[in-house]
Amino acid sequence: MKVCWQLWLQLFRRMPTLVVLSALFAAGAVFFASQWLRGEARMGVPAAMLFVGATWIWHVGQGMNLRGLCVAESFLLPGFRRRLLEYGAVDAAIWVLLPLVLVMLLKLPHVALIACGLLLMTALGLLMGCNPRVGMWVWPMFIVLGWVPALAAQLLRDAVDSTLTPLLMLAVAALLLKLGITPLLRIEDRETGRSPMESTGLERGQLRGAPGEPTRMGIFGKRIGALYDQTSQRAMQRALRAYKSRPDFSRRMVLVRRLLLPHDNPEAIVLRIALVAVFVCFYFFAVMHRQRFQPAIIGAYAVMLSVSRFPQLNLGLTRMRPNMADLYLTLAPETRAEYQKTISDALLVLIPISTLSALVYTSLGAVLVHALDPWHMLLVAAIVAASASMAALALHLIGPEGKSGRTIVNIVVLLGVMAAYWGGYWLVGEFGYLAGGGVLALITLSFGFGAWFAAQREYQQRAPRFDAPII
């Protein structure tokens, strides 16, 4: 039990937010269940829904925890697989057997259906945490059912009355567990380390929870990753040939950018925008075509998506410190400030890239929803994206290196972006493109330029660091 206790504590240490959220849902379920036992018949449904939500959230966290535990080195521990099985049995006893005993004591109907439903929700949560890539294929089923709610309700009533439904749910739960856990139990060689500054968007659901945890990607992700690597290699070769033919300052700066930002060359930018456009079109035609909403929201989301790249900057530069020593010796700067200025100037290319991305995403959204005034959104998005990119680059360039500090800075940036966008949208709508846009540009761009120049000056005064970060 000592091993199970330590495994259980890992979830509290690594994902306390999920633990607290699951506990709140469980407490709400207990409260409504107590009201239901006192005779309030309407309280039974919210109690069941809250408990199902608590189960799902808890096991999403457990799945993410398993991803960090099941690394190649862990399988060298004696009886590691057996200990995981024992831990799973304890977890099932808490979240499945105990509620089932309560159901039997209360003599509720459909005991087999409830038992298999609990197992299915547990397996679904584990799949979402262990293997988010496979878990994404579960959501299309709910999207399809959302198109035909009457048919979904009829299927639900027929499923409750059918004696085969528990067996089907049990089979689906077993399949989900296999899809989620089996890849974690394979012992594979660790892949070659990738640049912390890469920008593919493929690892958003594959965040590492512990040092050494492998990045697990499917066939589609590996193919797209290979395309990104090919674009970065071609861009580097072009930059090298150009520098050899005429070694001047501008081409030297391009080489530095290709090293620091491997996936921010023109080909990779087009590929990234195309992939986002495909997913946006699919989401719109699958979900949003039946809903009515204010088109201006699309511009706000596009700006927020474009600046979501910058939190990676602080973390990436921190992780790249040992490798940056080679770049320092290669550049051979006369002063430390010259080296720091080279790095900060190389990162400036992220500002036009972020602004361009926001404009493309806004234009795509305006076309999809047939916005009545797309130029209104495009003007505000262009101004806010440019100024927000400068501010975000400045804050993350000299900001805190701790996870909590980076999170706070990111929240501040996102809140500022939303306030600037909606304030600017109102200004342009009230005073016109020229007056409203001019005031918006004067305020936001002045702040962005001021933040960037102050951050660059501070960054140049700092001594370069090449020590390995403590993770």
What does this structure look like?
Mean pLDDT is 83; it is low at 204-212. The protein contains 19 helices and no strands. It has 471 residues and is mainly α. The chain has helices at 2-14, 16-37, 44-69, 80-105, 111-130, 132-135, 139-147, 149-161, 165-181, 219-245, 249-260, 266-286, 296-306, 311-319, 321-331, 336-347, 350-369, 374-398, 403-461. Helix content is 76%, strand content 0%. It folds into three domains: 2-185, no CATH class; 217-286; 294-471, no CATH class. The chain starts with a helix and ends in a 10-residue tail after the last helix. Keywords: Membrane, Transmembrane, Transmembrane helix. The chain crosses the membrane at residues 43-61, 84-105, 111-130, 137-156, 168-187, 269-287, 346-369, 375-395, 407-427, 433-455.
Quickly describe the structure.
The chain is mostly helical and 471 residues long.
Roughly what fraction of the amino acids lie in strands? under 5%
Total number of strands: 0
Report how far apart the termini are: 29 Å
**What's the rounded overall pLDDT mean?**
83
Domain unit count: 3
Q: Which secondary structure elements does this structure contain, and how are they paired or packed?
A:
Blueprint: H1 2-14, H2 16-37, H3 44-69, H4 80-105, H5 111-130, H6 132-135, H7 139-147, H8 149-161, H9 165-181, H10 219-245, H11 249-260, H12 266-286, H13 296-306, H14 311-319, H15 321-331, H16 336-347, H17 350-369, H18 374-398, H19 403-461
Helix pairs in contact: 1-4, 2-3, 3-5, 4-5, 5-9, 10-11, 10-12, 11-16, 12-17, 13-17, 13-18, 13-19, 14-18, 16-19, 17-18, 18-19
